[in-house]
């Protein structure tokens, strides 16, 4: 009797697993791409607007490093209705959003230089993981005023 009960429980377990697996099926690539475009606010119906929209997009892309020119030329206009550069400027000036170069590389900034935009409350975490060029400058080679600015940049970011 015990052997038959064990087989019965195993069969019930197998049926249950098969039923659960049938309920969970992968979506098609086309459905997944539609989801991603909507989630990233790239489709016309899902675009955001205004400074709140910029804030929401930057919160979603928090810490993503992209070429400097791509942020205002490609990324933000593709996700916002009537994007104006002053929207991003205002968020940076009020301190809600910061920017920095988190990866190492040449010190010259050009349009292709990777820049990360991130929410100010996450600045410490992003900057702690970055390799800053300013950290390689010996403090004895800079003036007192420069040292104050450098300390502020190290602790609070750009």
Spatial order of the strands in the main sheet?
2-5-4
Shape: elongated
* H-E order: HHEHEHEHEEHH
- Number of separate strands: 5
Describe the structure.
The protein has about 160 residues and is mainly α. It is about 55% helix and about 10% strand. It has helices at about 1-25, 30-40, 50-60, 70-80, 85-95, 125-130, 145-155; strands at about 50, 65, 80, 95-100, 115-120. The strands form 2 sheets. A 3-stranded antiparallel beta sheet has the order 2-5-4. A two-stranded parallel sheet has the order 1-3. Helix 3 (about 50-60) crosses helix 5 (about 85-95). The longest helix is centred in the first third of the chain and has 22 residues, at about 1-25. The chain is elongated, with a radius of gyration of 25 Å. The model has no long low-confidence stretch (mean pLDDT about 85).
Give the topology, please.
Blueprint: H1 2-23, H2 29-39, E1 48-49, H3 50-60, E2 65-67, H4 68-79, E3 80-81, H5 85-93, E4 97-100, E5 114-119, H6 123-128, H7 144-156
Parallel strand pairs: 1-3
Antiparallel strand pairs: 2-5, 4-5
